[in-house]
Amino acid sequence: MTVTFTDVFKVLFAIFLPPLGVFMEVGLTGAFWLNILLTMLGFIPGIIHALYIILTR
Q: On the chain, which terminus has fewer CB atoms closer than 10 Å, C or N?
């Protein structure tokens, strides 16, 4: 698995604004809407989900 320059920015966005990091990775899919819901329910679950999405794709 190679890490690109944009992956660094996606991870930073995932930490500070989780839905933005997921949007940059997958667009307006179900994962994006799930991340918005998780972020509204608690910021930490949103971060964990965003990092999972970014690091597994």
A: N
